[in-house]
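Table S2 (continued). Query chain:
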Amino acid sequence: MTLVRPLDRYIFLEWVKIFLSTALGLPFLLVIIDVTDHLQTYLDRNLPAGDIALSYVYYVPQSMFLALPAAVLFATVFSIGTFTRHSEVTAAKASGISFYRLVAPILLGAALASGVDLLVGEMVPVTDARRNDLLGESKIGSGTQRSNFAYAGEYGRVYKALSLDVTTGRIDRLQIERKGLGADYPTLLISAAAAAYSRDTHQWTLQQGVMHIIRDTQPDVAVEYGAMRDRRMNALAPSDLMAKPRDPSEMRFQELSRFITSLERSGGDSNELRVERMLKIAIPLTCFVIALIGAPLATSTQRGGTAWGIGVSLVITVTFLMLVQLTKAVGKGGFVSPDAAAWLPNAAFAVMGLVLLYRVRT
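Corresponding output:
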């Protein structure tokens, strides 16, 4: 029995043609829109034309990450719609080929698109960082001094300071908090009147403070010190403490996971970030789920034409984007598990697609 038939190759190639043209066309359209909105801003910063042009090359992965599910939908609706209007679907059924077998190559293509989108999603933080450097975004708001701030570091630590001077490498009124997880990992609270950074040894020295070790079932321990060095803090240079909090879109899945762990250990609310993290997987898998809806919908009319196909695709795309925004609100509010909330749009679309597939005449 032949698994791949000439009909499979024909359907797959027709689908791929539309998919590639849409997957490349939509990011190009998004680039044009972004240029129209922000070009004057970039010119006002006196950025070189070459840097502006190169920044849009780095913008392609980000725009493609969101465009690939829509490209799968357009390709599915238009390819099957064309087969239906030309009676090719009817001819296949008359030859004993069910609709489910007919759309198998398209579902395979959608699954491959999901894998590609996962890879693109891991590229986006790297390309976005490079783009921000070219456009000077990372320099906006930077300086050598900062006051009344908190910085979430690694190992579950949060650094709070009255003031920081990068030039002198000095912090006034420093407090370090690390939330504990039980008797074996107690809560740690370190306060210091000041902290000084040595550029020769790359070490911080905390001055005139108290270290509190807070345990759940045992008495707290407080140790006063005149000067103390903190090995965990030595990984941070003064300039690192000037960094603005990174957006979830600027972190890869593993980086975001580490940041969430650190935030939770410091007692912060990580619900919104957990939704964003899971969406990095859920959105690429939408490529496959959305094909389940597009395939049966494309056979619902034979005379709808191009306008009908575009209309259906746009309605489904806008509905999905609205569900994603609702998902973020639901997950952030804690109404359901943040990790589960990220999958709600896919779950709703998968159920809808399976119902539509069940009702298709095979």
